Amino acid sequence: MQDSKLSSGYLPQLDGLRTFAVLAVAYAHWIPADYHFNLPLGLSAVEMFFVLSGFLITGILLRCRKSLPQSQETQWSIIVSFYIRRFLRIFPLYYLILIIIILFNVPSARETIFWTATYLSNFYFYTQGSFSPFIGHLWSLSVEEQFYLVWPWLIIFLPNRLLKPLLISTIIIAPVFRCILSLVTIDSMQKFIPTLPVGCLDALGAGSLLAYLGIDSNNGQKLRKLGLYIALPIWIILMILDTITNYPIIKQIEILPMSLTFTWLIGSAAQGFTGWFGKILQNNFIIYLGKISYGLYVIHNIAPFFYNGLVKRLNIPHDLAYNLIIRFVVLTTITVVIASISWWLYEKPINDFKKYFPYFKKTAS
Q1: Nearest C-alpha neighbor of 206 from the set 235, 236, 180
Q2: Helix (H) or strand (E) holding 346
Q3: Would the pTM count as exceeding 0.85?
Q4: CA of 276: how far to CAs of 13, 22, 128, 281, 283, in Å?
Q5: Alpha helices (H) in 272-353, listed in sequence order
Q6: pLDDT tens for residues 151-169?
Q7: How many Å apart are CA 328 and CA 5, to the nearest integer?
Q8: CB contact set of 279 (below 8 Å; sequence gap of 6+)
């Protein structure tokens, strides 16, 4: 369960992956579907975030679990520290954004406030069979919070012999759940099945299993090879079949090999890519964008609302304002600037309070 790379601290290439994932999501939301080249850009980027979240969160919890016998902390104190630290990182920006979109009367913000404020927007969008404009991306944050409600208790309190079966079962349960539900769900709701918490478990579980096995271990390397040499080709084949047949159940199956592919990508980045790709992932600006990626993600889909209002107020010609390249560049600039201001003046100062809630308190020598 312990891994030298994972326990060594900051892994910069993972921030690089975050940057490309949030860019893919932004592209999917800002650019018309005709220019997506039949690629599931938004979904695959979000699933990569889920795999990464499972990998990092489970890695933290497993290291805490292993260190408990040598510390004065308890299982309960670990749980408390986990939730306080998550609260400090996630809640301040999220609820600030909710307040802003309500004040500016962003479409659907007021009607859905119960669902967004309680982190249940994924259930709302599933039942509606559509994403609300400008706030639809918040479903993935709901899934993350629902995952946090359950996962720490299982990882910290379950007996050792049940951990690996738990992780494997989550990976198996998710595609079975999606396929069965797709057979009994009306057409308009089928593509929203992956927004349900059980429907995301193969991504979260795949990352968690990678953390459990360890990126440097033989089994960890086997999982990564499975992702590269078996899951990736299957994912490509399923994407082609989906384009040709458009059979709904293919989309439900596709997420499993997609998630396993990302175990290779994330495990390799945690270990450290070499060559040109490694240099890109470790570029200082790319790493910086990854560091503020939470802000970028939360803000990016709301930015077009303010962009549209600015275009209207300034009477900018439609052909100029909505040229795909110009619009993408301006939206990117707006999002990066706002996310940067948010990080340095709001998120980071709050995030720094984590130092008062360590998982293990230092004792005097």
Answers
A1: 235
A2: none
A3: yes
A4: 12, 21, 44, 9, 10
A5: 275-281, 284-291, 293-300, 303-314, 318-321, 324-342, 348-351
A6: 999 999 999 999 999 999 9
A7: 37
A8: none
